[in-house]
Write a structure and sequence with these properties.
The complex is a heterodimer. Chain A is an alpha/beta fold. Chain A contains 19 helices and 10 strands. In chain A, the strands form 3 sheets. A 6-stranded parallel sheet of chain A has the order 3-4-5-6-7-8. Chain A has a two-stranded antiparallel sheet with strand order 1-2. Chain B has 2 domains: about 130 residues, no CATH class; about 120 residues, no CATH class. In chain B, strands 4-5-6-7-8 form a 5-stranded mixed sheet. A 3-stranded parallel sheet of chain B has the order 2-1-3. Chain B is elongated. Classes of the chains: A alpha/beta, B alpha/beta. Chain A: This is Putative DNA modification/repair radical SAM protein.
């Protein structure tokens, strides 16, 4: 490995930005914090603020850099793999702090996104990341946004102290399955990735529910290990040959996956799970809330910093590389579902694989990165988080991949014509959400408006329902908009002929001036009203 | 048939409120009145035939009376909506506010939700437009460091938004000295460390001196440009998406787009 000495800060910044650019998440969202009266500077806005947009159209919100690219790991997809012949360098914690402060005061950025290669050992690296954050928070009194990676395999005490300084933390899952990880990232293990993820989840819950508890009790770590090695591991430890990782429980309805009935179910605040889980499961969950009891503290390995901003207040996220390994879309969204349910992740990001290394275990992608596939996965991700769908409804083992021509919701509806047409004046909220052409906003408006009067097609149009999509699936006062065949092939052709709004630059139709679900480069759902795009 | 009366007033809340006060108390009939803000462009306004032009002299006392009436007889929410509307770039804003208030004084607080009405809808749209631009400038504004660690930002917004972005930056940089200057309106926000921000009109500031950047400034500009040019992924280059998210009009004052 060539480690370049005496590089200028300019050169270092170029090398360590170039090495960090493949990380997807650049959001500064999830936490609202006022500025401080004392020394220092900074505040945070929950909706996030985009400060610029790079040539690929992605939002720049944070100073996204690696601490070092001197990496001892040899992950085959990564530009910084130890066997690559690239110039290696590292920042010092001081340089990170100065860059962040000076960029921040000129309003270039919302804060810092600090990631890193693994230098010498996970603990050695994590200590350096931690020291950079400490300098920013304690010496420079920086009160802006910080997103920091946890290095897989680092000591829990280092993870905890980082969690007190950072707003958001993330540990990349890298590849959807353990097999994929083994094939492409030989130095990483599923367990080393999930362990800090679980620690952060439990620490957050503890911090939110019992803010005054600060005990020195490490017993929880045995608990974490048992959690990881039991149910959650099972649900994530998917072998590409075995498709039945999500066990369908027919007695509970198909929304419930086997992962949910496991032994350790964390506190769950997902909107759709709450609304649909039967009593037995609720009991099961409340029993397992015993994490928060005083005798099993996750936190308390380290002393809290003087200024308490909370433990990872903006939550955690992760990212998976799409298309480097042969997993199906079904496997990918099932993993995402398990992550949302078992680890309380705020976001799962999907990153279309870009071949940066010559390695015969990596696929060749003559058509460029699989951007449309990435987009379909983001659409499905929304259906999981906000529309009450489960992974096993959207895809099956027999039909494991999304349709290139149709968005996942249309695709689902066409496979379930037996439940349509739906009477808009009677159907409940979650049934409305499942109709193509009706979204979260219009479904809410329908529920409100029909309290006072029966709705007509004209009314639906005013509420933002896309009738040219919805008309095959709904009735208003018992009548369809006009007589139409309810037959899969016919409707499929009709829907395909309507042009779908894809993000600019993806697919053949790039004339559309509107972004729809492409929020991976943009904001979270908690955008303020005035930011809603029409 | 009665002649139309057109009230020409100063482009400010005080000016528009004074005109509304005068128009209202003239008892000439709302349908024959119109309120316009005076444009400072050279062409002046297009004068209409058979119309009487009344040039309104801004009167703070009258303005305060109107403001008080809106807050008390309609609602605080309506007052906010009116004030944000007045900072919009829309040429007909003064008359829209006038029509909105006519409706508001008869309907009361619920006027703000009466979106089926064209006037209310226009004011609502103006508010949205202003808020959108405010949000954009929270991100796209760039400070440059001049002497004595003072930060200077020049902006060129469509709507009159400096007073709306001032609270955000004062909170964020409460220990900093900064100036945000609106080039088009020649107004600015001045913030001194530890003090509340102030709003100034006219060119009291000698901005020529501001050409002298601090020693460190160039270095950080160049570092930022390096970061900006490196962070994009070549395999995903998408200038259309970039332009859609960051329209060209913002780029003049953005460090990373200055060659």
């Amino acid at each position: 490995m060539i480690i370049q000495e005496n590089l200028s800060i300019q050169n270092k910044l170029e090398i360590l930005t170039d090495a960090a650019k493949y990380d997807v998440a650049c959001t500064s969202s999830g936490v609202d914090r006022k500025g401080t009266a004392g020394p220092g500077m900074g505040n945070a806005v929950a909706a996030g603020i985009c400060h610029s947009f790079s040539a690929d159209g992605r939002c720049i919100s944070l100073l996204k850099i690696l601490f070092t690219n001197e990496c001892i790991f040899d992950c085959k997809y990564c530009i910084n793999r130890s066997s690559n012949d690239v110039v290696r360098t590292s920042f010092t914690p001081d340089e990170i702090a100065t860059l962040t402060m000076e960029f921040y005061r000129r309003n270039y950025i919302e804060g810092l996104f600090l990631s890193s290669g693994v230098m010498r050992s996970p603990n050695y690296t994590m200590e350096l990341l931690c020291e950079s954050l400490r300098l920013l928070r304690e010496v420079h009194h920086f009160n802006g946004y910080i997103h920091c990676k946890a290095v897989p395999g680092a000591d829990p005490a280092l993870i905890e102290i980082t969690g007190w300084y950072a707003d958001r933390m993330s540990i990349n899952l890298e590849l959807p399955t353990a097999d994929g990880l083994k094939a492409l990232a030989p130095h990483k293990t599923r367990k080393n990735i999930l362990r800090p993820m679980k620690q952060i989840q439990l620490g957050r819950n503890e911090n939110l529910h019992l803010p005054f508890m600060n005990q020195n009790n490490k017993s929880i770590y045995n608990n974490i290990d048992s959690v990881i090695s039991s149910s959650t591991m099972d649900s994530l430890n998917i072998h590409s040959s075995r498709g039945n990782f999500i066990k369908e429980d027919s007695s509970n309805g198909n929304l419930l996956s086997g992962t949910l009935s496991g032994q350790h179910i964390p506190y769950e605040n997902d909107i759709y799970i709450n609304s649909r889980k039967p009593q037995a499961l609720l009991n099961n969950i409340s029993q397992n809330l015993s994490y928060a009891s005083p005798d099993s503290s996750t936190l308390g390995l380290v002393k809290r910093p003087a200024v308490d901003r909370g433990f990872v207040p903006a939550g955690q996220s992760t990212q998976m590389i799409i298309g480097a390994t042969p997993e199906s879309d079904y496997q990918i969204i099932s993993v995402a579902e398990a992550l949302y349910q078992n680890f309380d992740l705020k976001r799962v990001f999907y990153s279309a694989f870009i071949r940066v290394n010559e390695d015969n275990s990596l696929p060749v992608l003559p058509g460029g990165p699989p951007l449309l596939r990435e987009h379909r996965l983001y659409q499905a991700d929304w259906l999981l988080r906000f529309y009450g769908f489960s992974a096993s409804e959207l895809l099956t083992e027999d039909r494991p991949n999304f349709n290139v021509l149709l968005d996942p919701k249309c695709n689902w509806a066409l496979g379930h014509l037996e439940v349509f047409p739906v009477e808009v004046n009677k159907a409940d909220y979650y049934t409305l959400l499942r109709i193509p052409g009706i979204g979260v906003k219009s479904a809410g408006r329908i529920i409100k408006a029909r309290r006072t009067s029966r709705l007509s097609f004209e009314d639906l149009k005013k509420m933002g329902v896309v009738l040219k999509r919805a008309l095959y699936f709904i009735t208003c006062n018992g009548k369809m908009m006009y007589p139409t065949k309810i037959e899969e092939n016919y409707i499929t052709n009709q829907l395909i002929s309507l042009k779908e709004k894809l993000p600019l630059g993806i697919g053949d139709q790039i004339t559309y001036q509107q972004l729809s679900l492409f929020d991976d480069v943009n904001f979270n759902l908690d955008i303020p009203k005035y930011m809603e795009r029409r | 048939m009665k002649n139309k009366r057109i009230y020409i007033c100063e482009d400010s809340a005080e000016g528009i409120f004074t005109a509304i006060y005068d128009a209202w108390s003239s008892r000439y009939g709302h349908e024959y009145n119109r309120i316009e803000v005076s444009m400072n462009n050279e062409n002046g306004i297009n004068l209409e035939l058979f119309s009487e032009y009344i040039y309104v002299k801004t009167d703070e006392e009258k303005a305060v009376k109107v403001a008080k009436a809106i807050k008390e007889k309609i609602s605080m929410e309506a007052y906010d909506m009116v004030c944000h509307g007045i900072w919009s770039e829309k040429a007909e804003k003064a008359d829209i506010v006038y029509r909105f208030l006519i409706l508001g004084f008869s309907m009361g607080a619920k006027v703000v939700n009466h979106l089926a009405n064209d006037t209310v809808m226009s004011l609502f749209e103006m508010n949205r437009n202003v808020s959108n631009e405010v949000h954009h400038f929270l991100g796209f504004l760039r400070f440059k460091e001049i002497n004595n660690h003072i930060l200077l930002a020049k902006i060129n917004p469509k709507n009159d938004i400096v007073r709306l972005i001032a609270p955000h930056f004062s909170d964020r940089l409460s220990n900093g000295n900064f100036i945000i200057y609106d080039e088009k309106r020649k107004t600015s926000i001045v913030h001194k460390a530890g003090f509340p921000w102030i709003y100034t009109i006219g060119e009291h500031l000698n901005l020529d001196k501001a050409g002298n950047f601090s020693n460190a400034e160039e270095e950080f500009q160049s570092l930022w440009k390096t970061f900006f040019e490196t962070i994009g992924i070549e395999a995903r280059t998408n200038h259309k998406l970039q332009r859609n998210n960051l329209p060209l009009r913002f780029r003049n004052h953005m460090t990373e787009f200055n060659k």
